[in-house]
Amino acid sequence: MSAPPLPLDSTCPRCGGGFACGAATGACDCFGLRLSDALRAELAARWPGRCLCPRCLRELSTPSPGAPQA
C-alpha cells in the first residue's frame, strides 16, 4: 500500500506567503470555506491554476464592513 501524497509547498500569489496546499490529499484548508461562485470565478480568472493561502481565502470570503450583502 502506498502512502498518500504529501501536501504541496506553495507560495500564495496574493500575499507571497508560503503554505502547504493539501488539495491533492483532500486535506486542504480551503475545503471548509464557503466561497461564492462569483468569487471562485474571479479568483480563477485572476490567478489561473494557482491556490491562495488559507489566510487570503478567509479574508476574501469575509464581506468587508459596509459591503452590500448578497
TrEMBL record:
<dbReference type="Pfam" id="PF14375">
    <property type="entry name" value="Cys_rich_CWC"/>
</dbReference>
<protein>
    <submittedName>
        <fullName>Cysteine-rich CWC family protein</fullName>
    </submittedName>
</protein>
<dbReference type="InterPro" id="IPR032720">
    <property type="entry name" value="Cys_rich_CWC"/>
</dbReference>
